[in-house]
Structure prediction request, 428 residues.
Amino acid sequence: MKLYNIKENDEQVSFGQAVRQGLGRNQGLFFPAELPQFEDIDSLLAEDFISRSTKILSALIGDELSKEKVAEMVGNAFQFPAPIKAVKDGVYALELFHGPTLAFKDFGGRFMAQSLAAVSDGGKITILTATSGDTGAAVAHAFYGMENINVVILYPKGKISPLQEKLFCTLGKNIHTVAINSDFDACQALVKKAFDDEPLRQQVGLNSANSINIARLMAQICYYFEAASQMSKAERENLVISVPSGNFGNLTAGLLAKALGLPVKRFIAATNANDTVPRYLETGKWDPKPTVATTSNAMDVSQPNNWPRIEELCRIKDWGLETLGRGAVRDDESAAEAVRELNKLGYLCEPHGSIAYRVLEEQRSADETGLFLCTAHPAKFKEVVDSILESDIELPAPLAKHAAMDLLSLNFDADFAQLRELLVKVSG
Ligand SMILES: *Cc1c(COP(=O)(O)O)cnc(C)c1O
Prediction:
């Protein structure tokens, strides 16, 4: 597989390099130089999730990894289903929350972990990442127990939900978590300091495993095919997909699925009040505003870092940006109303998925099949969902199990010397 840097086109890398490096020069994102085309989509869709995903990812990766190796990686990464559920006539929810951390980030995080292990030269790898919740949990679970890889996760003490904290700070083994006595920005600043420390970088094999890594997007392509495979041919040939978006990785993956041949009539970019992209698509002006906090907090992003990939893909495929659907649910009360509406239809959904549902239903015509992505399990946003529905929803098994375990986190001030010492110690 060859990829190029969108900002500095002369920088070309292999899949292995792109996975190890994450970003290219000048903070440029990597993009595939060639996109394979699947002609016989019906027979591809007739395959099971694992063998179909192996075919897709193997076609993308090319001869850099054997098909057997890719099959093994996919088998290890995708150990949970991505079912669609009918919520009403012509509308389906795609449930992406059946993995260990109950959010779609498990697909990308786990495939990235497999990819990094597959392309590493056998040297030590230390993943260092700062999290405000979801990403840390997915990364911790994805790398848990892997040989030669240590993970250090920083988070702001007392500023993530107690349930979130339990989900990734109770693992032990190669997962080291540190509650920093400060805010998220201070955690990110510590991570940046570590990456700027070249001797440290070399010594411990530092890697960030962050969300712009191409391996994550590649994994996410697969569940769009999986969703279509569960529909009749007539339904899927008139398909409109609404994606609740923050950094726009999920939407990028969906558009890549379409570029590989999946017949999707239209995608809709759905956001909350952080609506830089919908406004840009209306006015042609890129005008990010300060980020506002909402009940769909994983979408509280005003400068989405995957957007350049969407522009690049649309340019290559000659898809006018105006063909992208877009919409925003700009206040929490409207998001709550959508949660209630779904609940009346017998479907329990948290605010992220409900925003995608709302925008879909505003824009879908009666003859179209609608699909909205449910990016997190409702129990992951228990406080919000319970207050909207006046309910007391049950914790699913993985959350309940971790909620009962002891926290293993260390606790530091935002002090780089202490972090450096820890990184050297865990990698030794
Ligand atoms: C990360 C996340 C999103 C946003 O996904 P992007 O790929 O960043 O657009 C939406 N919902 C949930 C629950 C998330 O964790």
Summary: The pocket of pyridoxal-5'-phosphate is lined by residues 103, 105, 134, 244-250, 298-299, 352, 375-376 (CB under 6 Å).
